[in-house]
Write the structure tokens for this entry.
Amino acid sequence: MCRLYGFRANEPTKVECSLVHAQNALMVQSRGDMEGKPNAHGWGVATYENHAPRIERQAWAAFHGEHFRRAASRIYSQTVLAHVRRATVGPPGPQNTHPFADGRWAFIHNGTVPRFDQIRPMMLAALHHDHCNAISGATDSEHIFRLVLSLHDDNPERPILDTLRTVLRQIVAWSREMNATDELGLNVILTDGENLVGTRLGRSLYCVEREGVTDCEICGFPHIHHDPNRPYRAVILASEPITHENWREVPEHSIYAVTPDMTLHIEPV
């Protein structure tokens, strides 16, 4: 199954409460999600410093020990990805743990490409040689990431949202060629620290848009050092609602992007 979390704001923000302390924090979801299933096969976070991702990940459960808590407590960033894994394709291990990263890009995935052993050769044939060689694990997720980057390299001026849409449609087409009734799970989030785009297909996904500085419902303090000369805005995406805010469901079979003014733009695929 896996559970994912994406955050984008116009000012650096602490996200520790959402990842660790909230009633349905990501660490809680690693022990058991809303379906009662554990996501205990690894965790990872990506934050951005000086326009490059800083990745920390481990191949054990987020609720084991203090490692995830300590990683979350250090986060103070405008862009954050976080992930807890339930292994479906590829065994537990560091090389199969999200986020995956290359250059300024970081990527997480919730879901499964069914019959991946049959679809994988078609994906590999579509990859650039360097991206094919860069694959170090066995997950469908890492192959999806490399497919997006290969298409982006072909046309770097094309909006990354359009590139992601093309990849999503291609994977859906390959899956239907194998078996039209297979359940495809393609919730992904991709970011370079400034652009943040993603998809919802076959798995749950919720969002909340924050405007203005408020005290956290968990710790009672604001999570930013606010610049009073501009309004604070943030967009949060998660597999499950985390806080008591007014989370709304992202429509099924959709693609989305966080705009420069920190609002969530959603389109049908």
